[in-house]
Amino acid sequence: MKIAVVHNLPAGGQKRALYEQVKRLSLKHELDLFILSVTNENYLPLTGFVKQIQKITYRHPEKFPYSVFSKYTELKNAYIQMAEKINKGDYDIAYVNPCYLTQAPYVLRYLNIPSLYTCPEPKREFYEHIPRINNKLTYNLTLLFRLPLKYIDRENARKADKIVTLSMYSKKILEKIYGRQVSVNRLGVDTDNFRPIKIKKENFALSVGAFTLLKGHDFIINCIARIPEKIRPSLVIAGPEGNETVYLQKLAEQKGVKLRLEMNISDEKLEKLYNQARLFLYAPLNEPFGLVVLEALSTGLYVLTTGGGGIPEILTDSRLGKAVERDEAVFAENIETALKSGIKNGEFRRNYVKENWTWQKSADRLEKLLNETVSQ
C-alpha cells in the first residue's frame, strides 16, 4: 500500500507508538509523512521510515485569544491544504493520528481517500474533571472560548472511515461520544530497548509520565510521605515537560519526600532507571492504556498502581503487579509491603510481555485494519 501518515503529536507515549508502528509498516509499504510546521519531529523522528515529508506551514500564536481563534481558522486552512496534497498523491489510505491542538485533526473532513484514525482518547477536558494547580484561573476563564473544540473533535473523528483505539476501556468511551463503532489495537513494547540489565538497585520508586496532575504524581508523593522516614524511598519521575513541574517539586519538599525529576531523557537513561528502581508506581487518572506499564514489566519491574482506565487489561496476573484503591493510606501500606517482601518473578514479567505485547503484533493488527479500511 501507499500510505499517507499524518500526525501532530507531542513527545510522549502516543508518538512512541506511532514511531514503532511506522518503523514496521515501512518494511512492507510505501509511506509519506504529512505534518505541520509546528509538529515535533525531534522526539523519535519518523524521517528514516518515510520516502517524503510534506510540511504545511502553520504558526500557532502563543497569546490568548489568538491562540484559540487560530485553531478555528488558520489551523483548519492548513489541514485543508494538507488534504489537497494527500488527495492528489495517489495514496491508498491515510493513516491519521491526533493533533495536540484539536485531538481529531481537521484533515479527516477533507480527505477523498479511505482514512483510519488512531484515537487513544477524546478531548478529555470536556468529558471529565482535569485537575490542575498552575494556570487554573486562566483555564477556567478561557473555557467558553475553547468549547467549540469539543464539537470539532467529535465531527472530525466521525469523518474517519475507521476509528481505532488502544483498549476496551477507551473503546466504550469513544463509541458513546462519537456514535461510531471503534476497533481496538493494543500497543506493545520494544523488549530489546527495555530489558533487564545487571545494575545495582537503589532505594527509589519510579513513576513515568508527563509532569501534569493527570498522571497522579502528586498522589504518589503524598503516599510516599506516609511511609516512616527511616525506610522511606525517594521518588524519581521521568517524562516529558508538563505544566505542574514547580508544584510537584514544592509538594515533595513540603512532604519531606526526596524527589528527582528526569525530563525528556533518552531510552537508554529510562531503561537504566527501570532497572535501578525497586518498584514502579503508577497512579494516573483514567489512563487510556498505560504504555509505561509494559516498559516497566519488560525490565522485570513490579508494578503497583491504582488501576483504572486500560491498565487492568495489562495486569492480568498477580505476579505482574497489583492494583489497589485510590486511597493514600492503602497505597502507602502496599508500597511498604512490596518493598519489604523482596519482590520476585521478574523473569515471569518479562516473558509475559515478550509473549503477549510486542510491537510486531501491534503493527500486524494495524496493517490488517488498514487493509480492511481500503477494501470496505
Structural account:
With 376 residues, the protein is an alpha/beta fold. The protein contains 14 helices and 13 strands. The strands form 2 sheets. Strands 3-2-1-4-5-6-7 form a 7-stranded parallel β-sheet, sandwiched between helices. It is globular and about 65 Å long. Keywords: Transferase. It comes from Candidatus Gottesmanbacteria bacterium GW2011_GWA2_43_14.
**CATH class category label of the largest domain:** Alpha Beta
Q: Which class of secondary structure composition applies to the elements?
A: alpha/beta
Please tally the β strands and state the result. 13
Q: Average pLDDT, to the nearest integer? A: 95
The run of helices and strands is EHEEHHEHEHHEHEEHEHEHEHEEHHH
Number of helices: 14
- End-to-end Cα distance: 15 Å
Tell me the radius of gyration: 21 Å
Please mark out the parts with pLDDT under 50 across 5 or more consecutive residues, or reply none.
none
Biggest sheet strand order reads: 3-2-1-4-5-6-7
Second CATH tier, the architecture of the largest domain: 3-Layer(aba) Sandwich
Residue fraction in strands: 15-25%
Going by CATH, the homologous superfamily of the largest domain would be Glycogen Phosphorylase B
As a percent range, the share of helical residues equals 25-40%
Count of structural domains? 2
Main beta sheet: strand number and arrangement?
7 strands, parallel
**CATH topology value of the largest domain:** Rossmann fold
The geometry reads as globular
Domain Glycosyl transferase family: 194-351
Organism: Candidatus Gottesmanbacteria bacterium GW2011_GWA2_43_14
Protein name: Group 1 glycosyl transferase
Keywords: Transferase
